[in-house]
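Reagents: none. Just compute today. Metallo-beta-lactamase domain-containing protein.
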Amino acid sequence: MEAKIEEISDGVYMIDPCLFDSMGYIALYFITQPKRILFDVGPSVTAERVIHAIEGLGYKGEQIDYLFVSHVHVEHSGGISKIASWASNAKIIVSPASVRHLTDPSKMYQAYTSSYGRFASLIGDYQPLSQSSMPRVVSTLSELPLGDRRSRIIQCVGHAHHQVCLQLDGSLLGADILSTQFRINDQLLPTSTPPSFNYPKYTEDLDTALALNLDRLMVSHYGAFDNPTEIITKALDSLKWLRHQVESLLKEGLLADEVADTLLKGLNCTPPVDNEYAQIKAKLSLIGFINGVIKVRSEKV
Ligand SMILES: [Zn+2]
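Predicted 3D structure written out:
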């Protein structure tokens, strides 16, 4: 199986590494101008496909300038060891909170494998970044030096405290700032996976993104959108809608797990992914969100 690669605008490519041998699970982005930046490396199981796709465009590993790891969740970063040894000159851009996970990803990996059932065995291992690659890790930049292109590295910690996004001119590579992958009654399901989801910060991240007046938003789950204001507004409205649903079900006396199961009945996904996977991931997000709502309510009291 090959990765699917699509040029979404001049020199900007979306790479779908076909995780679980199917499209629609995760999108990586490859920017070729003025520097070569791979935004997220994907899991280890698809690392060879990603390398092959980029080499197919005519680039060698040594020509990659930056590996941008948005956050250290396994789907986004599990292939870092393989990809970093291929891209042997690349600086590895991460959040300061990610650095220790690159040398010891066992906690991140364990969290994934304990939640994802049979899919855990299909994501590959998560090898730590070699000590010889560590000097290439950079966690303190607020922008990438890209000449006259405006670039900003933005901490977006609502989804995970170790998430960073990349703004390039009017485009935001937004990782998991929002997702369009799952909908509950046609509202976007937030990327609220426990334990690191932070509800107030998640809203702040979306407000920040909205204020950037973007003309393109690229997210990991899934794809590039030329109507970012619309999508971000939809994500904010969906949060309010979902919170209302959660609060009324909690008021009826349902437990968090029961609230999640009730809401899951309205689940649909675009693009279609495996139903069992969708159920697992959506339920995790719902539990994370419900806990977030409970936490915010208890802090207000
Ligand atoms: Zn994530």
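Residues 72 and 101 are 7 Å apart (CA to CA).
Action item: order primers for follow-up constructs.
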